[in-house]
């Protein structure tokens, strides 16, 4: 596999771009028209506002899965019907800056998962890692946080993976209001998880604890509960997965 490399020299950002081949082993898991192959779960803590009767609002618009709270404070998950073990998933995201989301790896119906964070809001980050639900916030690692806008970030220095993009170059690397690509790879259990944004590796983490989660689970997208985000939306398209080692 090839990937984009980002080098920063002061304010200069140089991209070396290599596109994925059409026969790279990835298979589409979203047809761009319907939610076939996916289902909504209201079993997580993000759906408490509806007393776990609904899991947020999920529709297909303009070739994308679009999610929002269905009533103030009520979110939830949309999960693949199929369970996956070792895999790599890639998708494109164009979310509003404000709602909290996430890409869940090996998710259970109640939302316990290894989460590649899509906390696209002030004090949040993209493609850091978080132990969701019964994983008890372990890990909780990121190498930057947003300040008050999506163009302005602050580096986190105690991360297991240093941020490869200079803060002053972030506004050129990340394209707010446009489609950006996320990628996450999970192998083994305890897992080794790697994430990328626009082809650049963001996080590389290996669990050092005993096995704490099932070997397989769904791929899920989240709308976070709390607050009132009924008029803000998360958007995902071109969702593809490649199984690794036949799992």
Short summary:
This protein has 247 residues and is mostly beta strands. Helices cover 2% and strands 43% of the residues. Strand 11 (126-132) and strand 12 form a beta hairpin.
Describe the structure.
It is built from 1 helix and 19 strands. It is mainly β. The strands form 4 sheets. Strands 3, 5, 6, 8, 15, 16, 17 and 19 form an 8-stranded antiparallel beta sheet that branches. The radius of gyration is 17 Å and the shape is globular. The two termini are 19 Å apart.
Fraction in helix = under 10%
Mass-distribution shape: globular
* Unreliable runs: 1-22
Gap from first CA to last CA: 19 Å
Strand content: 35-45%
Note the run of SSEs as H and E.
Answer: EEEEEEEEEEEEEEHEEEEE
Q: How does the helix and strand content classify structurally?
A: mainly beta
**Total strands:** 19
Gyration radius, to the nearest Å?
17 Å
Arithmetic mean of pLDDT: 92
Specify the biggest β-sheet.
8 strands, antiparallel
Number of helices: 1
Characteristic terms for this protein:
single chain, 247 residues, mainly beta, eight-stranded antiparallel β-sheet, seven-stranded antiparallel β-sheet, 1 helix, 19 strands
Write the layout of secondary structure elements.
Elements: E1 5-9, E2 12-16, E3 27-28, E4 38-41, E5 57-61, E6 64-68, E7 76-80, E8 87-93, E9 100-107, E10 113-119, E11 126-132, E12 140-141, E13 144-146, E14 153-155, H1 170-173, E15 180-187, E16 192-197, E17 200-206, E18 218-223, E19 234-243
Antiparallel strand pairs: 1-2, 3-19, 4-7, 5-6, 6-19, 7-18, 8-15, 8-19, 9-10, 9-18, 10-11, 11-12, 13-14, 15-16, 16-17
